[in-house]
Specification:
With about 220 residues, this protein is mainly alpha-helical. It is about 65% helix and about 0% strand. The chain contains 10 helices and no strands. Helix 4 (about 55-65) crosses helix 5 and helix 7 packs across helix 8. The longest helix has 29 residues, at about 125-150.
Length: about 220
């Protein structure tokens, strides 16, 4: 682990200075630009400070460490938030989640694959990505499932419930490796309709309006 990673200065509520949302986005965009240019190992707090025209101490006060800044930059530059999704039905929520996740897969997926490799060598980065990016997304999807159970849409003992978040997040990440294409909104939407909703006992869009073919072996 480099000195840049280990020299963490915790950003407590009292030490953090206030910055505008617009300025925060400038920091995040500088981080992502530098990551794409040179990767995680070449990224430095000094480089981010220079690119965003600020003092390095400002970055440490706000985010504490390079891994925390990277995780926040990834989360903070996403167009939408899964936590804001609440359509009133689980199928509607998952369809909206698929659209939201897939909207920036072409930009995020290569970067996430590179960061995942770096995280294997850097436990602090791995923990920051898990806490700042993966766990919030999984928690938002799990909240959709919990609301559905409370509404009576899905039985609480349905064995597929615990796998909804891993399925959706995993499908987005694995498609480039399996098929050479990003897990975009169209792909994730088909995945929801064809795999996730049927496992939950909810009809996908392909089932709606399709006449049920009778089983020849069953009595008329």
């Amino acid at each position: 682990m480099s000195s840049q990673d280990s020299a963490t200065q915790p950003a407590t509520a009292s030490s953090r200075s206030k910055i505008t949302p617009e300025r925060e986005q400038e920091f995040y965009e500088a981080v992502l630009e530098l990551l794409r240019e040179g990767g995680y190992d070449a990224l430095t707090m000094e480089g981010v400070a220079s690119r965003s025209r600020c003092g390095k101490s400002t970055l440490y006060r706000q985010w504490g460490s390079k891994p925390q800044l990277v995780a926040c930059a990834l989360r903070g530059t996403r167009a939408g938030s899964l936590t804001s999704i609440d359509t009133g039905t689980l199928a509607g929520d998952l369809r909206e989640a698929a659209t939201s996740l897939g909207a920036h897969s072409g930009r995020d997926t290569p970067l996430m694959h590179a960061l995942s490799h770096a995280a294997l060598q850097n436990p602090e980065l791995l923990e920051a990505l898990r806490e700042g990016l993966v766990e919030p997304a999984a928690a938002a999807i799990n909240a959709m499932v919990t609301r559905a159970v409370a509404r009576g849409e899905v039985a609480a003992d349905n064995p597929a419930l615990e796998f909804v978040a891993p399925q959706l997040l995993g499908a987005m990440r694995i498609r480039p490796m399996l098929e050479g294409h990003y897990g975009d909104a169209e792909y994730l939407s088909r995945f929801i309709e064809g795999a996730v909703l049927p496992a939950l006992g909810l009809a996908g869009s392909r089932d709606r309006g399709t006449p049920k073919v009778p089983d020849p072996a069953s009595p008329a």
